[in-house]
Design goal:
The protein is an alpha/beta fold. The protein has 15 helices and 19 strands. One of its GO terms (molecular function) is UDP-galactopyranose mutase activity.
Length: 465
């Protein structure tokens, strides 16, 4: 191994572990510091006995061959499942396929609603052709333009309010093109089978991949220090020193950081100028609590994701784990295993309520779903605090200002990943930013901040992810 390089990595999520893997391939031994007791970050698989939880419903989908190859290399082929993507919106007790199919919209929600939706849709398409604009609209304007007011209000307005906890008029829409597919006027079968309709999924949930990476790194003597929250990052005379909450320190020639960008700036020494600290302090996150509920009864829900936009539900999205992998539940168990996702802000009451109080909300949602009568065999609560970097209209400029400050003053500090760059990235882009950051460390002329800036990259037809 090369000895003169001595990199430090903050975070053992997909970005941190990918950076470590790449460094090891280049014969450099990094040290990894992870705040929590596990590897995998948001893409971990919390486990109790034979019960496993995927906190987000992690589809392994990418348009990058580099990442697809890397994923394939991380687990043996028999540990990957091919899962058919089937999502629906649950509206007025009816499952409406998602991505939206025009003929469902006209036929499934009643004739009057269908005709109104169609008229609104055609009008908004016509108007956007007559008056095209280059300006990036708010999410509400984008949604109304894409779907027409009626369908936007039924499917997206309430959902986005519930999940992003903000008025859609105040949210930027740059992520929407990537995440939300337009209405299709042909059914999926008429469109032919598309690679996107099937995704890869590790048999034991997303954390299986990251545990495999950790095991492979251990073979090179790289073992993440768990429960090691990095409390300060100091740069003096070309040397970086990080200090853990327990007072221990470690020094190196560079830092790869996947900790939230806001906290990186808050804990950076020498202290950045006031305006940089103020901008960083304005970067916000949304949290998610995933409640995994194993119902003894068998409910036939033919989808892996069910979005619940209506006010009758407190939950925002329901994962149907049985459609992801039966190995998330104990062998031969035959009930219905669901993951209910509750979106909240770290400052909201919901974030701090006890499991017991949250359990009452879950029971109410299960009753609304029509599954209130079933006994519960097992229940797990998984809290992810920094789940979503919030995409307000100031985000892009704020992040660019911080990026430029860091580039000028600390070129050997490499923010990477979803929270590290405060960018709404999935695993593939978090991993690519890590690979580009390591390449930059070795002198390549690449810009990790350019990963996932293509507004037309259509990812998944998902609303969140
Ligand atoms: C609900 C939900 C659904 C999702 N669905 C998908 C999907 O379908 N497909 C997909 O590919 N991706 C999905 N994602 C996104 C995916 O989880 C992230 O893109 C990915 O985990 C980002 O990796 P990361 O390493 O950048 O960040 P993280 O996973 O957040 O890892 C960062 C790590 O850094 C640690 N850390 C933070 N601060 C410190 C500190 N001060 N000191 C030490 N350690 C620290 C954290 O504990 C964490 O382990 C989803 C995410 C959510 C929340």
């Amino acid at each position: 191994m090369e000895s003169k390089r001595n990199p430090l990595i903050i975070g053992a999520g997909p970005a941190g572990l990918t950076a470590a893997l790449e460094l090891v391939k280049r014969r450099v031994t990094p040290r990894i510091f992870e705040a929590s007791a596990h590897v995998g970050g948001l893409a971990r698989t919390p486990t109790e006995g034979d019960w496993r939880v995927d906190p987000g419903g992690h589809r392994f989908f990418t348009r990058s061959e580099e990442i697809a190859d890397l994923w394939r290399s991380l687990l043996p082929e028999d540990q990957w499942l091919s899962v058919r993507r089937r999502s629906a919106m649950l509206v007025d007790g009816r499952y409406v396929r998602y991505p939206l199919v025009g003929r469902d919209l006209i036929s499934q929600l009643g004739f009057r609603s269908g005709m109104r939706g169609l008229a609104n849709f055609m009008w908004s398409r016509l108007r956007s052709r007559i008056r095209p604009t280059d300006e990036l609209p708010s999410f509400r304007d984008w949604g109304t333009q894409q779907f027409g007011r009626h369908w936007y209000e039924i499917f997206f307005d309430g959902y986005v309010r519930k999940t992003w906890l903000a008025d859609p008029g105040t949210l930027a829409s740059d992520w929407a093109n990537q995440r939300i597919k337009p209405i299709s006027w042909r059914t999926p079968s008429e469109q032919g089978s598309s690679a996107e309709a099937v995704f890869r999924y590790p048999k034991y949930g997303p954390g299986q991949v990251w545990e495999a990476v950790a095991a492979s790194l251990a073979g090179f003597g790289v073992v993440p220090s768990l429960n090691s929250y990095v409390a300060s990052i100091r740069h003096v005379g070309g040397t970086w020193t990080i200090e853990l909450q327990n007072g221990e320190t470690a020094s190196g020639d560079t830092v790869f950081s996947s900790m939230p960008l806001r906290l990186l700036i808050e804990n950076l020494k020498p202290t950045p100028p006031k305006h940089i600290r103020e901008i960083a302090a304005s970067l916000k996150h949304r949290s998610v609590i995933t409640v995994a509920v194993a119902l003894n009864g068998h409910y036939d829900i033919p989808y892996n994701w069910v979005y619940t936009p209506g006010e009758e539900f407190r939950v925002g999205r329901i994962q149907n784990y049985g459609r992801w992998s039966s190995a998330l539940a104990p062998e031969n168990w035959n009930g219905t295993y669901l993951g209910l996702e509750y979106y909240t802000l770290p400052t909201d009451d919901l974030w701090v309520v006890s499991d017991e109080s949250l359990g009452e909300i879950v029971e109410q949602d299960l009753r609304t779903l029509g599954a209130g009568d079933s006994a519960i065999d097992h229940c797990m609560f998984v809290r992810s605090q920094f789940a979503y970097p919030i995409n307000d209209p100031a985000r892009e400029q704020s992040v660019a200002t911080i990026r430029d400050y860091l580039r000028r003053n600390h070129p050997s500090l490499h923010p990477m990943g979803r929270n590290g760059m405060h960018h709404y990235d999935n695993q593939d882009h978090a991993m690519l930013s890590a690979l580009r950051s390591v390449a930059q460390y070795f002198g390549a002329n690449v810009d990790p901040w350019q990963v996932n800036t293509d507004r037309d990259y259509l990812e998944s037809g998902l609303i969140t992810g």
